């Protein structure tokens, strides 16, 4: 895995929403404006962990003809064109499963991915993908939530590599206001038992929230729905770039 | 409890739901052997729902078809008109025991929605149902019934606007609200422990049918036939006969010649959706495909994991019946027996209408629901 700078700003972007050219432009603009890593969404027809905003982004991408193959092709091009931050593929398990785990991990590695984020794959079901990832030096990012008991947290952390994806709220993705005390507690509990970076996501929509989580010990933030809202309303990358710089600036000051 | 049926099943859910499902499993294990819970459930199934349902020898139909002695397991006579109430009452009691205040459910044909809304009204639970807009249109009467029962019906406009999308929405609601909410899945599918819980609550169908056929025929039947959407009525009937030398046939929706819901009989592949590994209709990239059937209850891209395993082990056979054959069965059963089946159950009857002629064969068809809900739709189709 490429090194993750901390505190990390990790935007999520749905590949192919509304087309590949736009996604490439968006990623480059975000990286130029403070994004330290990218969560690259490969759209799946039935995104059960996503709220309305990301669902709509996925629908647009699928309508535009996005496929897993095209997404990996785009990633390969981005690498050739000099995008060097860590890029994690976020998708649902049926995408790699249907393509064949061994095949898909190999293709992802060749395309220049650093790992996978699979929201419908708890550790109990993850052996096959994890060992394929190990073989190709990819990380399979594990989720932790405020509902994890201390035993479960230990179990997840023991199996984790790369970073931990802390879910800030009970529920699905989508921009929300305010911060969650439970999430702060989770960050603190987790930092006590591991050296791995803890990156927080779900419901983060502004620099104030991002900064409070980092102050509480988070090593980064993932922002998805908010970014999709900005670019789908404005149909331009400039506003997203401005948003990324503002968040990044605030994160730097919160270290 | 077993997480898998052979290689199918499992618990492919967001981490947020893992503790919720562990809690559900734990509580279910407790009530499974709890005498007072089971007594309470039996009493409601008998006094409120109308169990046991008759096992009826359909003499005129048998004579017309000449494929054997055809028995109908009359789940259509249950309160609310389908087998769905068995599971809805069972899980609602469980939800209540777990201290949940609210239940949510998905529905395709609307039968599970009505059954859940009914159980909620009976037990004083708050209830919300998710239903695809396509289904809500073709099952308008059931939407009205749910509202009448005090339930809020959330119309789902995403994806194919049918059962699959209603399940997605219900899962999202459950992920956010599991602390006070129980997700009452209506078929033997979803993440572990749901396929087992739903099968167990539906197993009363097979247990009764086995006893009844032994009383009437003095021997086990040769063959069981049931329609398979998610597969709960079929697994409910089959489960009592798994260790017996009885042929089992699951009937899928063959659709209109262009589109269908043939998972175990068609080109479906292994996949992962809605928390389980099973067979799903999907394209070459793993995107779940839209399905179609005249029957909303069979219109689903996947199938319960236990059925995938029964197919893999060749313990059950899966076949398909198209819209036209189902409509023909809908009419035939009405005209020869005075029983109008649900379009779902008409698929099972439709398969028996195609079976080879035989005289000494005994067949049980699970008549999982009644056709009243489908009458307006069929009236349009037959115009």
Total number of helices of chain B: 15
User: What's the average pLDDT of chain B?
Assistant: 96
Task: Give the terminus-to-terminus CA distance of chain B.
Answer: 51 Å
Largest interface: A-B, 40 and 37 residues
Mean of residue pLDDT of chain A?
Answer: 96
Q: How many strands appear in the DSSP assignment of chain A?
A: 8
How many domains of chain A, as an integer?
A: 1
Number of contiguous helices of chain A = 11
Oligomer: heterodimer
Order of strands, main sheet of chain A, comes to 1-2-3-4-5-6-7-8
What is the assigned CATH homologous superfamily of chain A?
A: Aldolase class I
Biggest sheet of chain B, open or closed, and with what strands and sense? 6 strands, mixed
Task: Give the helix/strand class of chain A.
Answer: alpha/beta
Please give a handful of descriptors for the protein shown:
heterodimer, A: 255 residues, alpha/beta, TIM Barrel, 8-stranded parallel barrel, 11 helices, 8 strands, B: 383 residues, 6-stranded mixed beta sheet, 4-stranded antiparallel beta sheet
What does this molecule look like?
- Chain A is α/β, with parallel strands linked by helices and 255 residues long.
- Chain A is built from eleven helices and eight strands.
- In chain A, 48% of the residues lie in helices and 14% in strands.
- In chain A, strands 1-2-3-4-5-6-7-8 form an eight-stranded parallel beta barrel, surrounded by eight helices.
- In chain A, helix 1 runs parallel beside helix 11, helix 3 packs parallel to helix 5 and helix 9 packs parallel to helix 11.
- In chain B, strand 1 and strand 2 form a beta hairpin.
- The relative contact order of chain B is 0.16.
- With 383 residues, chain B is an alpha/beta fold.
- Chain B contains 15 helices and 14 strands.
- Chain B has a six-stranded mixed β-sheet, with helices on both faces. A four-stranded antiparallel β-sheet of chain B has the order 1-2-12-11. In chain B, strands 7-6-5-8 form a four-stranded parallel β-sheet, with helices on both faces.
- In chain B, helix 4 crosses helix 9 and helix 10 crosses helix 11.
């Amino acid at each position: 895995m490429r090194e993750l700078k901390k505190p990390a700003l990790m935007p999520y972007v749905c590949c192919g929403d509304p087309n590949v050219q736009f996604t490439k432009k968006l990623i480059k603009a975000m990286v130029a404006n403070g994004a330290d890593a990218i969560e690259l969404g490969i759209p799946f027809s039935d995104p059960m962990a996503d709220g309305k905003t990301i669902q709509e982004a996925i629908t647009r991408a699928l309508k535009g003809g996005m496929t897993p193959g095209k997404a990996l092709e785009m990633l390969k091009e981005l690498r050739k064109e000099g995008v060097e931050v860590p890029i994690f593929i976020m998708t649902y398990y049926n995408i790699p499963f249907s393509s064949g785990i061994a095949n898909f991990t190999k293709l992802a590695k060749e395309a220049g991915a650093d790992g996978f984020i699979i929201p419908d794959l708890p550790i109990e079901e993850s052996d096959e993908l994890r060992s394929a990832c190990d073989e190709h030096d990819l990380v399979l990012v594990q989720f932790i939530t405020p509902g994890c008991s201390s035993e479960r947290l230990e179990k997840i952390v023991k199996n984790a590599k790369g970073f931990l994806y802390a879910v800030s709220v009970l529920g699905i993705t989508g921009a929300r206001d305010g911060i969650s005390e439970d999430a702060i507690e989770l960050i603190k509990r987790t930092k006590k038992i591991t050296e791995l970076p803890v990156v927080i996501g779900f419901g983060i929509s502004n620099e104030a929230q991002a900064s409070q989580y980092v102050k509480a010990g988070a090593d980064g933030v993932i922002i998805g729905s908010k970014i999709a809202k900005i670019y789908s309303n404005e149909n331009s990358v400039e506003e997203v770039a401005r948003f990324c710089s503002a968040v990044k600036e605030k994160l730097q000051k919160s270290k | 409890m077993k997480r898998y049926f052979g290689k199918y099943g499992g618990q492919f859910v967001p981490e947020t739901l893992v503790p919720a499902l562990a809690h559900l499993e734990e509580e279910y294990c407790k009530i499974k052997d709890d005498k007072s819970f089971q007594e309470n459930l039996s009493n409601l199934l008998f006094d409120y729902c109308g169990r046991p349902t008759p096992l009826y020898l359909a003499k005129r139909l048998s004579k017309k078809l000449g494929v054997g002695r055809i028995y109908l397991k009359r789940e259509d006579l249950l309160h609310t008109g389908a087998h769905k109430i068995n599971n809805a009452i069972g899980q609602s009691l469980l939800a209540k025991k777990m201290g949940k205040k609210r239940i949510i459910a998905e529905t395709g044909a609307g039968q599970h929605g009505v059954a859940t809304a009914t159980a909620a009204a009976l037990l004083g639970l708050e209830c919300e149902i998710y239903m695809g807009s396509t289904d809500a249109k073709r099952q308008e009467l059931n939407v009205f019934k749910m509202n009448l029962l005090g339930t809020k019906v959330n119309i789902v406009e995403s994806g194919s606007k049918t059962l699959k999308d209603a399940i997605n929405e219900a899962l999202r609601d459950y992920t956010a609200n599991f602390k006070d909410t129980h997700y009452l899945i209506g078929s033997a599918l979803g993440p572990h422990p749901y396929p087992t819980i739903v099968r167990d609550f539906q197993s009363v169908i097979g247990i009764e049918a086995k006893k009844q056929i032994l009383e009437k025929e003095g021997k086990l039947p040769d063959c069981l036939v049931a329609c398979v959407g998610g597969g709960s009525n079929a697994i409910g009937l089959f489960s009592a006969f798994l260790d017996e030398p009885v042929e089992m046939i699951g009937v899928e929706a063959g659709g209109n010649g262009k589109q269908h819901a043939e998972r175990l009989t068609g080109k479906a592949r292994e996949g992962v959706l809605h928390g389980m590994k099973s067979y799903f209709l999907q394209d070459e990239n793993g995107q779940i495909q839209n399905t179609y059937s005249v029957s909303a209850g069979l219109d689903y891209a996947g199938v319960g994991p236990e059925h995938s395993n029964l197919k893999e082990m060749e313990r059950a056979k899966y076949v398909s019946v198209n819209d036209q054959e189902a409509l023909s069965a809908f009419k035939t059963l009405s005209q020869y027996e005075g029983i109008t089946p649900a379009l779902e159950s008409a698929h099972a009857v439709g398969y028996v209408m195609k079976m080879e002629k035989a005289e000494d064969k005994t067949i049980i068809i699970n008549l999982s629901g009644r056709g009243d809900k489908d009458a307006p739709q069929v009236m349009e189709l037959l115009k």
